[in-house]
Amino acid sequence: MALARNRRSDRRVDYWPGFVDAMATLLLAIMFLLSVFVLAQFLLSQEISGKDAVLNRLNSQINELTQLLALERSNRQDAEDQLLALQASLSAAEAERSRLESLLAAGSGESEAAQSQIGDLEAALGDERAISQRALSQVELLNRQILALRQQIAALEDALEVSEERDRESNAKIADLGRRLNVALAQRVQELNRYRSDFFGRLREILSDRENIRIVGDRFVFQSEVLFPSGSADLNPAGATEMAKLAAALIELGGEIPGEINWVLRVDGHTDNVPVSGTGRFADNWELSSARATSVVKYLISQGVPPERLVAAGFGEYQPLDPADTPEARDRNRRIELKLTER
């Protein structure tokens, strides 16, 4: 009769782990795709933000220089208009001087007055010529400034073109980086998957003879009664024996996993929904579940498991396997879960 039960138990162990591995692989693939999408979006947004800032700055400089160029053109037009007005005044003054010289040559009685007017016109003509020369110099200066502004605008437009070309090259590099990252992440997920399967296989070999140790999804589940006395966080002798087996398997597996895979064993403590009395060592189920997870972790460390490969977490009664309010459900919910994952 016992042999028949053992055979039925073996058949359950053979089928269930395969289903668990398939579900774990599917879940990891989905998590991997989500992680790659988020990382790619983050890298792309960072790169685009930097390029947009450079382009905006260059466009702003071009706009400022364009406005300066328009202002310089306006100033040059004003100077040219002033020069034309001065030249017109100079021409009129020279015409008046010619008329007065003609009167003087004719020997009219107004020669002295004409001579005086000619002197005044000569002085005025000198002033007009000086003003006209300054206007010409100003126009020449404005022409040089306009040429310099045009050269600056051309240089900025060239810089903008170079920046846009670099932006296109950066986008191509980001796409290539994303592809290589996808390949690298896929390889790491596959490697961790393989070692997780090995870990599950070894734990099944050393722990499969215990009815109160189960596999749920991608986790090994120990009923609390296997490891701890009721209401306590101190490992009992039977629990210490089971954890010693687990530590040996972890140490052996840790020597095989490549260093670039940053794996950890997460130890999760869970309680049922019956509150603790609050008068003893623990104030509530949070403290009890956390203390039990920590107790397992410390024992594994004492057996030689590296501390950096272990994580302890307490969930109280808030992650039940069975939400029913029955003694059987509470028995299932009091547990320690072990999960090999990546940090």
Describe the structure.
The protein contains 6 helices and 5 strands, in the order ααββααβαβαβ. It has 343 residues and is an alpha+beta fold. It folds into 2 domains: 46-186, Helix Hairpins; 210-342, 2-Layer Sandwich (60s Ribosomal Protein L30, Chain: A), CATH 3.30.1330.60. The protein has a 5-stranded mixed beta sheet. Helix 5 (285-302) links the parallel strand 3 and strand 4. Helix 1 packs antiparallel against helix 2 (111-207) and helix 4 crosses helix 5 (285-302). It starts with a helix and ends with a strand. The model is unreliable at 1-15 (pLDDT under 50).
The gross shape turns out to be: rod-shaped
What is the multimeric organization of the chains shown?
Answer: single chain
The fraction of residues assigned to DSSP E strands is 5-15%
Estimate nothing, just give the exact number of structural domains.
2
Alpha-carbon distance between the two ends: 46 Å
The first-level CATH class of the largest domain is given as Mainly Alpha
Mean pLDDT rating: 77
What's the topology here?
Elements: H1 2-105, H2 111-207, E1 213-216, E2 219-223, H3 224-227, H4 237-254, E3 263-270, H5 285-302, E4 310-314, H6 327-333, E5 335-342
Parallel strand pairs: 3-4
Antiparallel strand pairs: 1-2, 2-5, 3-5
